[in-house]
Amino acid sequence: MTMGFSGTADLRSDTVTRPGPGMRAAMAGAEVGDDLFGEDPTVRALEERLAGLFGFPAALFTPSGVMANQIALQLLVAPGEELVCDAEAHVLAHEEASPARYGGIQTRTVAAERGVVTAALLAGAVRRGNAYTLGTRAVEVEQTHTRAGGTVHPLDTLREVRELTSGAGVAVHMDGARIWNAMAATGTSAAQYGETADSLSVCLSKGLGAPVGSVLLLRSEHLPRARKLRHGLGGSMRQSGILAAAGLYALDHHVERIAEDHDHARLLAAGLRDAGFTVRPPETNIVLVAVPGAGEVVARAAQEGVLVTAPDPDTVRLVTHLDVGHKACRHALGVLTAVMTDVVAGARKTVPAGRS
């Protein structure tokens, strides 16, 4: 453990960050209007800034990334049509069956290694359709891929996917919930990523540290229907410039520092690997550790002020972010090493004689 640190090291997710004084001041001073009427100047400023950054003609501010994704899918895929995505995609695993429930969308999955959907995979999955066969209307990719441990879709891979889908008349939606981490890890620009998709959702409340909100980037002709869909899903807001101001502040102050989160993820991964645990090498800010009794690790670490999650019974997940600095990460490493070692030792003692 690390001397000089007291408090809680919350590594459950990069969504747990809290706005600091500068962001709170920006929110308090935001110029506002009624966004349902398109009259909130701060919301418009955020939408225009991100549309320009990623090279899209239009943008729509939403309360959440889930809503942004589901609006995009309904814009690209009509009820009864098909979406192809990775079997572990967030839009399937963590969005309450919304493609089917709200969009009437059939999903077809591919088993992508590390969550990276490639043109080679799609070549055997995308169907053109005919009078008797359902055709694929859109492909979804996730940047970075949450359940795979924050893996990055390489730009060349995305360009190959775009080329294949364009030739088949199929659209591409990119769930860019952690696209800021992908940009920090690879040096790829927002515009370069934007060129590979027909629609793109970007989250403000993960790596950027805003308290709420995502923005859907899309084509101009889709904007009126996107606003209607947002309203139907309960996402129309009024003086939401107070929230948009946090996003603008984050764009000004929190983008460059994301690389620090990746450094901290590597620190945690290296320390746990040196302690003898199997760790998936982090590409960005998510660390996955293979350890039996993950639920017990979570509970015991919490007693020591270190909060982590267990996405499955044999995996512990750590996510670094702007509210967990170097000292907190060193403290978390000491606690987790001790707890995991003890849990694994206890599990070995309970194995019946003659078994291994």
Report on the architecture of this protein.
The relative contact order is 0.16. The mean pLDDT is 95. The chain has helices spanning 21-28, 41-54, 65-76, 90-93, 98-103, 119-123, 155-168, 179-186, 190-194, 223-232, 241-253, 258-274, 294-303, 326-349; strands spanning 9-10, 58-62, 82-86, 106-110, 136-142, 171-176, 199-203, 214-218, 278-280, 286-290, 306-307, 309-312, 315-319. By secondary structure, it is of the alpha/beta class. Helix 1 (21-28) runs antiparallel to helix 11 (241-253), helix 12 (258-274) packs parallel to helix 14 and helix 13 crosses helix 14. It holds the Pfam family Beta_elim_lyase. This is Beta-eliminating lyase-related protein. Keywords: Lyase, Pyridoxal phosphate. Belongs to the threonine aldolase family.
Short description:
With 356 residues, the protein is of the alpha/beta class.
Taking Cα atoms only, what radius of gyration do you get, to the nearest Å?
21 Å
Given helix and strand content, the structural type is: alpha/beta
Q: Give, in spatial order, the strands making up the sheet with the most strands.
A: 2-8-7-6-5-3-4
How is the main sheet built? 7 strands, mixed
Number of strand segments = 13
Q: Judging from the principal axes of the Cα atoms, what is the shape?
A: globular
Q: Overall mean pLDDT score?
A: 95
> Can you count the helices?
14
